[in-house]
Amino acid sequence: MIPAGQEDERSPAGDAEDLISIARIARPHGLHGEVIADILTDFPERFEDLEEVLLRLPSGEVRSLGVERTRPHKDRVILKFRGFDRIEQTDLLRGASVLITRSELVPLPADSYYDFDLVDCEVLTCQGETVGHVTGVEHYGAAPLLVVVAADRREFLIPLAATICIEVDTIRKRIVVDPPEGLLD
Predict the structure, then answer these.
(1) What is d(CA 79, CA 62) in angstroms, rounded to the nearest whole number?
(2) Residue 109 domain-assigned?
(3) In which domain, by residue range, is 87 found?
(4) CATH number at residue 37
(5) Model-wide pTM > 0.70
């Protein structure tokens, strides 16, 4: 349980589906209320000016906490929350996710997408034939690869390249592909 008086009295902003995890608390750091977190964002500079964060506790509860300070530590970030001054308090945060709302996402350049926006997109050919649904994105080489699983459980790796993915609509959850010969065999 979060110590009394630490949680924000407002209800956390955004619908649960609009919350995106940018870090995961690994463990307490030191004896004075700091935690160390694994960074889950390509924009670690976002931690520099944090004043408040939403946390999804291991119980699933979402709470808002004030941030006293942050600092980078190797490939991680150390966070100090207001009112958390002892290791016993921060140990309760182990495994919690640090969240932001969709409106706080860093805008991406044109033709760039967040992986989580591509997952669950239906993939169709130019002829309207369903290929399957995106279940993940792998990052190897020049272009990310969409992991697409068909209804018959076959898996395809489709490069997220403009010449192949001719239409990407993350709002409608739809990607139209013009696959080169052999890609879907």
Answers:
(1) 17
(2) no
(3) 16-104
(4) 2.40.30.60
(5) yes
Q: Which tokens is 58 given? A: 């291991």
Residue whose structure tokens are 């979060």: 2
98 with 140, same domain? no
Which has the closest alpha carbon to 21: 135, 109, 101?
A: 101
- At 176, the amino acid letter reads V
Strands across the sheet with 130-138, in order?
155-159, 145-149, 130-138, 122-125, 174-177, 165-169
Measured distance CA(70)–CA(62) in Å, rounded: 20
DSSP conformation class of 149: E
Residue type at 12 in one-letter notation? P
Residue 66: CB atoms within 10 Å: 16
**Residuewise pLDDT in 10s, the chain (185 residues):** 333 223 232 234 445 558 999 999 999 998 889 999 999 998 999 999 889 999 999 999 999 999 999 999 999 999 999 999 999 989 999 999 999 988 888 888 888 899 999 999 999 999 999 999 999 999 887 889 999 999 999 999 999 999 999 999 999 999 999 999 989 98
Q: What is the DSSP-derived secondary structure letter of residue 60?
A: S
